[in-house]
Amino acid sequence: xxxxxxxxxxxxxxxxxxxxxxxxxxxxxxxxxxxxxxxxxxxxxxxxxxxxxxxxxxxxxxxxxxxxxxxxxxxxxxxxxxxxxxxxxxxxxxxxxxxxxxxxxxxxxxxxxxxxxxxxxxxxxxxxxxxxxxxxxxxxxxxxxxxxxxxxxxxxxxxxxxxxxxxxxxxxxxxxxxxxxxxxxxxxxxxxxxxxxxxxxxxxxxxxxxxxxxxxxxxxxxxxxxxxxxxxxxxxxxxxxxxxxxxxxxxxxxx
Amino acid sequence: xxxxxxxxxxxxxxxxxxxxxxxxxxxxxxxxxxxxxxxxxxxxxxxxxxxxxxxxxxxxxxxxxxxxxxxx
Amino acid sequence: xxxxxxxxxxxxxxxxxxxxxxxxxxxxxxxxxxxxxxxxxxxxxxxxxxxxxxxxxxxxxxxxxxxxxxxxxxxxxxxxxxxxxxxxxxxxxxxxxxxxxxxxxxxxxxxxxxxxxxxxxxxxxxxxxxxxxxxxxxxxxxxxxxxxxxxxxxxxxxxxxxxxxxxxxxxxxxxxxxxxxxxxxxxxxxxxxxxxxxxxxxxxxxxxxxxxxxxxxxxxxxxxxxxxxxxxxxxxxxxxxxxxxxxxxxxxxxx
Lengths: 255, 72, 255
Prior knowledge:
A: alpha/beta; C: about 260 residues; alpha/beta
């Protein structure tokens, strides 16, 4: 009886940070072909995302603050079990960014940054590969990293190191979880979202960005498209890779 | 607000600051320092400053006034 | 993959493919045609080229051409384009492997390899940007290097260098052509199972294939794995990606 029930369980794509920005855009796009498990802190915004998704797909909402890395495994495991569902793909789009010069940073900032950007995606992955919780449903993971991952910039010690870290995690998981789970990262350039708004409201910075980005400014749609490709069967032989989606910013020395 | 002059002196990397001192005339004034002041106001006084506001206040005194006003 | 939702749709796009008659080139031509692209296929082998064209479903013409003859390349392509229509994208798949230990290396061997693997990429790009050839709007150039352009191996210096050079071509041209809205990206394939291998059972025997496979976390690849990545980079869904090198290699370079 239990066996029969398991075969009927719906498969979802879990997208963390889908209350806004890249996460929201990705959720809307992926809902064209899959059921989506939305995640974030703000229930009102998550419901807004749900309303924007395609109605043919089922949409569930998991509200949880990723700063709490202590309880995340239990929370996710319980949510999956009580909703009688499976997760086939995991997109980690939640991000914590505080731009601080080294002299202003502190342990609290590092803890929060690392928990949201590195530790919780690792623990979520751990839960999703557990056969008792998720059978062998998981086949693909995409981490939203950042084009700062392989470079340096001022005031990015916490955020930058967390993004380099998640790409290191990505490669290790790609090797460890092969051949059943593919793991890749998308590295966006600066895209206007709720998280990056403080950067964008500075007109001088905006002007400088337009000059530094060979293809000009991008949009959340560009990132969602790259995630969509990596999640799909068309990318079945791609694993352990960083895909930079930044209009050529990080190969540009001019501007 | 008592220690604010001392705190600001530390951010500006000088011994002392005066209310009439112009922000942009400090040796260490750059985008990173501006960011430090914004972070400081947020962390210590729970006040959000923008880059634009920072350039408008011009002096240390103006900055302190701005923080006081926003703090309410 | 549901038929109704196809983000990689290339309908209306005119694409030039070199090396179209066999291996990855053939798989790419068939896929691009299936995705709706009009194709200008170039290869030296007339019989195989016609066989590929027969299998295509969209508007396709062939050009039997030796792309190492760079002096006549522009004239021949221009003539065909005048009838076929201006191009939106090109992909250079023609290439030759080369296994030569250092002590038998010569400048001629190097030059020969560069003549087919490397220089045509530059020459084709030069032809592509001409206003009688480029359709305008957004353009995409996809070059094919190799994981051997990223890692080292013995008796491979000429081939490896000829492929690694394409990474420089990719980044430089990405910056130079960004103002024209032409993106330039490169795919570095790992070991792909091709007809050449199944025909050459003596070299590619079971033991050898198994050892090759074990180097790849996801096993050996199929020509389609690279073809889909090419389609992704040619299509508008990757409109903010330029100057990138994407390894499609089953995790080979991630370990």
